[in-house]
Specification:
Number of strands: 11
Strand order of the largest sheet: 2-11-10-6-7
Strand content: 35-45%
Radius of gyration: 19 Å
Mean pLDDT: 85
Number of helices: 1
Distance between the termini: 55 Å
Helix content: 10-25%
Shape: elongated
CATH architecture of the largest domain: Sandwich
Order of helices and strands: HEEEEEEEEEEE
Length: about 160
């Protein structure tokens, strides 16, 4: 009798895992034409999304450091049309989305490509080799590619957060 309960419990656990997998963004499918999407950084799809920086102790203005390991950016699908300015639209031809960070320091603008994804839920690592401000803000841009009629970038403000 105990064996039957354990088998039933395993069956329920497997069924529950299958439901979760079907509901996850990774199971959302491929990026294609005429789809709405949002950008996500470290599990945050709304601004500001934090990027943890390896800047320890007292930090002076203008100091830079490296992102902590294990951070990422991804593209998540949206179910319906929206006119929000920070939401993207793939337009008539896109089959992927390119992800970049735009870091501005005075008149200097750096565009840092992170990667291109063809599937929703694909996590693009934020390299620990990048040199970024210890504190401040930047913009993550999620650009449909190839760009076509009606295509619109998704944007997300990110905050660089040094460690105490």
């Amino acid at each position: 009798m105990i064996r039957v309960r354990n088998t039933a419990s395993l069956g329920l656990a497997a069924a529950f895992a299958a439901v979760l997998a079907a509901a996850s963004p990774a199971a959302a499918g491929s990026i294609g034409p005429n789809q709405y999407f949002a950008g996500d950084v470290n599990g945050h799809a709304s601004s500001p999304a934090p990027i943890g920086m390896g800047c320890f102790g007292p930090v002076t203005p203008g100091e830079s450091g490296h992102p902590l390991a294990g951070q990422y950016a991804e593209v998540v699908p949206l179910p319906a049309a929206t006119t929000k300015a920070d939401v993207g639209y793939t337009g008539s031809t896109a089959s992927a989305v390119s992800i970049s960070l735009i870091v501005t320091n005075g008149t200097i603008v750096r565009v840092i490509p992170l990667g291109t994804v063809a599937d929703y839920g694909t996590k693009v690592p934020i390299p620990t080799t990048l040199t970024l401000p210890c504190y401040g803000s930047a913009e993550a841009v999620f650009a449909p590619t190839p760009s076509g009629v009606g295509a619109r970038n998704a944007t997300l403000t990110v905050d660089f957060v040094g460690q105490p």
